[in-house]
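Example with several molecule types.
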Amino acid sequence: MRAMTSAAPTTQSLRAALMVPCYVDQFYPAVADAARRVLERHGCEVVVPKQQTCCGQPMLNSGFAKETLPVAKHCCKVFADFEYVVCPSGSCTAMVREHYRDLWLDDAKIPRVFEFCEFLHDVVGVREMDVSFPHRVGIHQGCHGLRELRLAQPSESFGCATDKTRALLSLVRDIELVNLDRPDECCGFGGLFAVSEEAVSVGMGRDRVACHERAHAEIIASGDMSCLMHLEGIIRREHRAVRVAHVAQILAGDRV
Amino acid sequence: MSARTEAHPPAAARFLDDGAHAAWHDAALWNVRDRRDKAAASVPDWERLREQATRIKQHTLAHLPDYLEQFERAARAAGATVHWAKDPEEFRVLVHGLLKQHGVTSVAKSKSMLTEECALNPYLEAQGIEVVDTDLGERVVQLNQEHPSHIVLPAIHLNKQQIGRIFEKNLGTAPGNDSAEELTEAARQDLRARYLHAQAGITGVNFAVAETGTLVVCTNEANADLGMTVPKLHIACMGLEKLVPRFEDLAVFTRLLARSGTGQAITAYTSHVTGPAPGSELHIVLLDNGRSALLARDRFRNALKCIRCGACMNTCPVFRRSGGHSYNHVIPGPIGSVLAPNVAFEQTETLPFASSLCGSCTEVCPVKIDLHKQLLYWREELAKEGRVPLSKQLGAHVFTFVATRPWLFKLGGRMMRLSLRITPRALVYGPWNAWGKRRELPVPPKRSYLDGGRP
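Resulting structure tokens for the full complex:
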């Protein structure tokens, strides 16, 4: 399998494949690159399999389970040889981890995908971060990462899940994380929902942006670029001042 | 009264057209969700209580025929008469027959979504029987000649000013009076007389206990209690799924119901009825209407665990922003969208898609119904039956073909980005671009990441 491999900075490194969500690949190469650099800086050897395409979520969420299966199988094949697969999207990660089973894929063939923050927090065990980001940042929790992967404790449920995104961002120097009055309401992207329920989707998106503005956030940060693509679309159309950034870009110390 | 088959997106868009009212609706329901969070947090081990509830329901559904028979025997032994109706038509005829037999011309009805499901009010009214809804919210929507927009808060789509105008027209309150206390008092005075005049009370049922034949009816206004005790005839209407096996099981559900629904520790009135009062008659009507069919559907039977608390509606970001009427189904919101296709597959095909699949409904559900997964499964059923737009069907096949061929996927991406860059803005943002109506598309880079694109 052809792959882009990069030299790892340490000898005892974790070897991880980077699963690049299709819309990140097409529209946000800077985000995938930031994710790779952050992983490398924390001692991982990162491989980017070039045969990867899409996890199939847009189709499954539209009801096309049968049509999703070949795409899911392709995804399984591409990432079959990796002990760790890391994906800068909670939604795509949840698709593989939580929904591939519903397609009757053999558990053993489903790749071990970790969401980007989850991997850094749980597997790599990052507890220090040598970057600075002197901004007020609001965290937008992607719903699938939040509720299906438990990347944080959903506000309507009771338990003690660590907010992994917040834990990592807290390590960044000079960052100020704001508190939102609705900490984890859905942004209204929802894949094709954004188009088929345009009015509700935009209504939800505007409310989400407003929630971050009320908390005086300069940046809306998320582990899911799809949510941010939707929010950024509203922000740009309405010429609002708040900006968006993927968590990986902040952890990479990139200017956003 | 709106048509019952309009698709969700246009109805939702209309609701959102009045931005200020939509924002108020969202805030009002978010406040209820917030109260629910606090009430749930006050119970040690809330999540375990949910687990217990879902297991009791699981067990009950697995042995439903046995428990139904046990309930019927116990209720009869307590002096009640038990009737069975397979669909709304049988139900309406049966209830009308009972009323006619007793010479009833006026009925006091307390809140029952089941009678809404069976469109009982218009049927009885057409037969010359007056039906008065006695729940305050239901009375408001009845006077306004519409349906409840929420199963627990039937008039949540109306604010005080709107209710003031409805009461001014129907109950003669002063123009411009929007005091909640005064409007409530006006409704109360009007209803009092009607209770005394009614010859029968019709109520819903929150829980029915198989071992004792007991019915449990929960309200905050005691309207069901008046309806059950003042007239000499009480007709209690329930779906087959309302059963719990033992009296002690009730403790689990009464702790969950009000906390989940309104954030109260318990409803103001939780009345237990075992058999009729001396000198009165109690008739219990059990309705199937698709419930036994749902029980046979592996992926969907969990929906029968629902105790109609409404928590999924209050937390649902789509419901809060589109209002219950936009669902055009008797039960709106996430639970409505998974119950609707079971009884009206073709008429409700947009409902399983009226969700961003955020999953909050599943988290708040006191009986742990996997609501967001069921929405996804219904989408699958609809796609299987060709009930999704042709463009989506074609798109899915093309996407599968392309996404299993990396070279083609790459080429397709390249062409898509190129065309976005070179096409004039007016063409990209034409009326066919729903995304771009009120949102910018992302700026396409020259090269994708896998194609060597870097910041």
